[in-house]
Every structure is written in C-alpha cells, then in structure tokens.
C-alpha cells in the first residue's frame, strides 16, 4: 500500500500546537483550519493514536473532490477504494457536515455517501446484503465551499478520553486542551507546577505523563485495532515502542489544591488510575491560602467561571487572589484560561501574552504572565589530559 494521507484534527486555535507535536514525532505537516495533514504508513495510524496529546482524532483522508450535485458526490465516493479497508461484515455508519455548499442537507449527503459505499462494496464482494456486524468504520463527509472531503475515523471516542478519568467534576477541562496549554507554557518536568483550582487534576496528570514521556493513548483501545487492514503486529510494535519510551525515573514537583473536597477525591482517583498517585500532591485548600513551594515554577489553572461559578463577584475575588499570590512569587510564571474580559484588570496587570482559544464552545483567552527562566546549570569541567 502506498503512503496514506492522514489528518489529525485540531481544536480551533490549536492547529499549530498539533502540527508541532507531529513534527516532533517526525512527520512533515500542512496546516489547515481545524486539521493538520500528513502522510504515513499503516503503523503511523497506531503511533499517532497512541502519542498525540493535543489532537482530537486521527483520520484517513480517503479522497477530496468537487461536489455541487448529489451525482458528483455519489460518483466521487464510489470511485474511492473502500474495499481496501472495509470487510464484507464491517459496520460503516456515515456522519456529515456542510458549510457554504450547495449540498446543504447533511442527512441527504450522508445517505448518498452510504449508498455509494454500498454500491462499491457490492461490486467487490459480489453480494447484495451486508450484515454490518463486524468492526466499526465511521465515514465522515465534510462539505465546504462545494468541495467534499471523505474521511475514515481510526480513533473512535475522541483522543481526550485517555481512560484514567473514571469520575468527573463540574465542567472539567479536556485532557487534550490541558496538554495544549501545558505545551504553550514555559513549564517542563524540571520545574515545579501548581494548580490552585485543580478540579479533577487534569493539568497535573497530563504534566506527569508529559514529563515521564508516557504516551497518552496507552491505557485505551481504538476501533482500528480490530480492522483486518491493520495487522495486530503494527499495534503491538507501536505499544512496545511506547512502553520502552517511558522515563519514570525523573523526579516531579506537581501540586494541586481545590476548595472542593469532592474534587480532590476525584483528582486522587484519576491520578491513581493513571498510575501516578505517588507523584502528585493534592490538598483541600482555598486559592487564597495557596503557598506554592520552590523557585522558577509555573502556575497553570482553569479557574471557575460561567456555568462553573455563576457569581461574578466570586470570580473577581479569585482573580485578585491570583494577582496577590504572584506578588510573593517573583520567579514564578502564571497561566490561566478564562472567558473574562476583565481578568487582567482584576489580576492587577496586563498579561505578557494572550491567545484566543475555545474551551468547549466558550471563547476564552489564555493569559500568560511570564517570570524569569531558571538559570542554566553550569557546564561541568572536564579533567585535562
């Protein structure tokens, strides 16, 4: 099989972060709105599903073509090599969306795509009926400006579902978003990290996984593991590579607190499920009493807002407490995601950087207050010969 055209989907505003991740994994990329394009082999489907921290899913780009009419959509889909992927007993539901296209009826477009795939498979398998009781292949048709993009989803449940969070707190941040915000910060595993509104502990657990180089998909399964077109050996190789890459001998300085005792219980359970309960310190504590320890650390937090905390006065009070906290932490950096337009005012100073992001469907800013970087360790002198 020739090189596959693959797509890593990206939340709006985080395409560059996903592209950087793929570059670090060794792939050349092209970035578009909401997705990053790259090419690879069968095993790269496995590797990317296991390793991508900030993407939502890994898709196979089956084809792209103009489709102003249902006939064009039908013929374009039918021409694609569905028999290379979908076995005779495979289940193949169709999802869809349309934007600025003449084919504006999504249900109608989904029906045409389904019909076209059926016709192609009928010709190949020489049968008129498909039981659809085998592995699952979710096909998606995306219509944009009268261009149809047809993809096959290899991921299943989105990549933020790592498998360690069995319980959730109110309005938790997605694991993929938390990982992206960590990557946009100055934090690395050698620096202290503190979250004064830690909720279910997502920032801290994701940070530990990053520091120890734990592939985020190691604790979950994917529908494409059951596809005949992907040999079990490919998944086995990718998982063995990931297990071999873990570096769990690096000391971590990860601390979180929250005013809600139930949130701390959820966070501790999630850390235990992730195999990290001994590496993260959690405590029940209001943000006003938070006292991060160490030098050159980072505070990263998703403070309550909107549906999570309806009292605007409480939000203002919490933001002022953050500003006061930072006055006593001259070597620390502070990062917070918030929809508040008055965050900087209540914090007490302008952010050094801001970045517009969407936390779910809520438009937010990622406020970044940058402290000094840690001093470089002195070079070790070598003995003269």
From TrEMBL:
Keyword Methyltransferase: yes
Keyword Transcription regulation found: no
Keywords of this entry: Methyltransferase, RNA-binding, Transferase
Domain THUMP: 44-154
InterPro entries xrefs: DNA_methylase_N6_adenine_CS, RlmKL-like_Mtase, RlmL_1st, SAM-dependent_MTases_sf, THUMP_dom
Gene3D superfamilies: 3.30.2130.30, Vaccinia Virus protein VP39 (3.40.50.150)
GO molecular function, one term: RNA binding
Transmembrane segments: none
PANTHER family according to UniProt: RIBOSOMAL RNA LARGE SUBUNIT METHYLTRANSFERASE K/L (PTHR47313), RIBOSOMAL RNA LARGE SUBUNIT METHYLTRANSFERASE K_L (PTHR47313:SF1)
Name of the featured protein: N-6 DNA methylase
């Amino acid at each position: 099989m020739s090189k596959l055209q693959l797509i890593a989907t990206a939340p709006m505003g985080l395409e560059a972060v996903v592209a950087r991740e793929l570059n670090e994994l060794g792939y050349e990329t092209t970035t578009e709105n909401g997705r990053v394009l790259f090419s690879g082999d069968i095993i790269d489907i496995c590797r990317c599903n296991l390793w991508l921290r900030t993407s939502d899913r890994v898709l196979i780009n089956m084809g792209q073509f103009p489709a102003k009419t249902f006939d064009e959509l039908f013929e374009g889909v039918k021409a694609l090599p569905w028999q290379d992927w979908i076995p005779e007993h495979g289940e193949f539901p169709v999802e869809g969306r349309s934007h600025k296209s003449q084919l504006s009826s999504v249900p109608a477009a989904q029906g045409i795509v389904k019909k076209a795939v059926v016709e192609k498979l009928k010709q190949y398998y020489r049968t008129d009926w498909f039981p659809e009781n085998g592995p699952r292949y979710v096909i998606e048709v995306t219509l944009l400006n009268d261009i149809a993009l047809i993809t096959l989803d290899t991921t299943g449940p989105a990549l933020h579902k790592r498998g360690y969070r069995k319980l959730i707190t109110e309005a938790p941040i997605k694991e993929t978003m938390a990982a992206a915000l960590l990557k946009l910060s100055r934090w690395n595993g050698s620096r202290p990290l503190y979250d004064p509104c830690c909720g279910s502990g997502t920032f801290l657990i994701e940070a530990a996984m990053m520091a120890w180089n734990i592939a985020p998909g190691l604790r979950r399964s994917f529908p494409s593991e059951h596809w005949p077109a992907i040999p079990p050996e490919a998944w086995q190789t990718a998982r063995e590579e990931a297990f071999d890459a873990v570096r769990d001998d690096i000391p971590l300085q990860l601390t979180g607190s929250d005013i809600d005792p139930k949130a701390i219980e959820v966070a501790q359970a999630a850390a235990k499920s992730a195999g990290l309960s001994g590496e993260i310190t959690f405590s029940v504590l209001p943000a006003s009493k938070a006292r991060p320890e160490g030098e050159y650390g980072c505070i990263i937090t998703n403070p309550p807002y909107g549906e999570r905390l309806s009292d605007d006065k409480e939000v203002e009070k919490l933001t002022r407490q953050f500003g006061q906290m930072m006055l006593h932490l001259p070597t620390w950096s502070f990062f917070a995601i918030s929809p508040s337009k008055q965050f900087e005012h209540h914090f007490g100073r302008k952010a050094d950087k801001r970045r517009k992001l969407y936390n779910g469907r809520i438009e937010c800013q990622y406020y970044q207050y940058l402290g000094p970087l840690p001093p470089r360790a002195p070079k070790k002198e070598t003995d003269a010969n």
